[in-house]
Amino acid sequence: MTDKITMKTPLVEIDGDEMTRILWKMIKDELLLPFVDLKTEYYDLGLEYRDQTDDQVTADAAEAIKKYGVGVKCATITPNKARMDEYHLKEMYKSPNGTLRAILDGTVFRAPILVKGISPAVRQWEKPITIARHAYGDVYKNTEFRVPGKGTAKLVFEAEDGTRTEQTIFRFEGPGVLQGMYNIDSSIESFARSCFAYALNLKQDLWFASKDTISKVYDGQFKEIFQRIYDEEYKEKYEKAGITYFYTLIDDAVARIMKSKGGIVWACKNYDGDVFSDMLSSAFGSLAMMTSVLVSPDGCYEYEAAHGTVQRHYYRHLAGEQTSTNSVATIFAWTGALRKRGELDGTPELIRFADTLEKAVIETIESGTMTKDLALITTLPDPNPVNSLEFIQAVRKKLEGML
Ligand code: NAP
Ligand code: MG
Question: Is the minimum distance from the CB of 311 to ligand 1 under 6 angstroms?
Answer without folding.
Answer: yes
